[in-house]
Design goal:
The structure is a single chain. This protein is α/β, with parallel strands linked by helices. It has one domain: SGNH hydrolase (Rossmann fold, 3-Layer(aba) Sandwich), CATH 3.40.50.1110. It has helices at 2-16, 31-34, 45-55, 72-82, 96-100, 105-121, 139-146, 148-156, 166-169, 173-179, 191-210, and strands at residues 23-29, 60-66, 87-93, 126-129, 159-161. Strands 2-1-3-4-5 form a 5-stranded parallel β-sheet, sandwiched between helices. The longest helix is centred in the last third of the chain and has 20 residues, at 191-210.
Length: 216
């Protein structure tokens, strides 16, 4: 009887212990984050990244804060209401639509600076993922835009991914076609392309998680 009573007390005590919550990461981005053009939502960057992180031992949930067509200005305006309680880290993957619209690099820099400053003020570590500017806007534009990401990452101590799509764009056109890495618009990755992106992004997100401060 005493053994049963003791076991019951122990079980009750264990059940009363707080359960550690998963670390919540916000992925703030555009169509590349949102999963544009993919028939199965599970093939998107956020679900694949969450699966990759969990498979590599990280107890995380990744929140999809991607909006197709969003610019750095849009991301800045949405950040505060996306930072729901418990958000411990943020992936900032914006700038592609600024490039598509030919917006001034100074505007993109200002918006990303404001996003990172906001996160720093809230003591939330960030990963900054960029895209390289094409040469058709001219060498000065390209140089100014490409400098944004390393400059701001250094200033704010963010984990840097200079080119989110490097695993695809650094592959030859023949290999891209052979492996079916891009959708027909040649802008957005296919499920196989997302998988390659995630394989390169995942270790950088683990670096980001190492910056998360434990709950006091």
């Amino acid at each position: 009887m005493r053994k049963r009573l003791g076991a019951g007390i122990l079980l009750s005590a264990l059940l009363a212990l707080p359960v550690a919550a998963q670390t919540k990461i916000l992925a703030l981005g555009d169509s590349l984050t949102q999963g544009y053009g993919l028939d199965n939502p599970a093939d998107g960057l956020v679900p694949q990244l969450q699966d990759w992180l969990q498979a590599h031992g990280a107890d995380v949930t990744v929140v999809n804060g991607g909006v197709s067509g969003d610019t750095t200005a849009g991301g800045k305006s949405r950040l505060d209401w996306l930072l729901t309680p418990g958000t411990k880290a943020v992936i900032v993957a914006l700038g592609g639509n600024d490039l598509l619209r030919g917006l001034p690099p100074s505007e993109a820099r200002s918006n990303l600076d404001a996003i990172l400053a906001n996160l720093q003020a809230k003591d939330i570590p960030a990963l900054l993922a960029g895209l390289p500017a094409p040469g058709n806007y001219g060498a000065d534009y390209q140089r100014e835009f490409d400098a944004i990401y390393p400059d701001l990452a250094q200033e704010y101590g963010a984990v840097l991914v200079p080119n989110l799509l490097a695993p695809i764009t650094e592959t030859s056109l023949q290999e891209r076609a052979k492996e079916d890495l891009m959708q027909s618009d040649n802008i957005h990755p296919s499920p196989a392309g997302v998988k390659k992106v995630v394989a390169a992004l995942g270790p950088k997100v683990l670096e980001l998680l190492a910056k998360v401060k434990p709950d006091s």
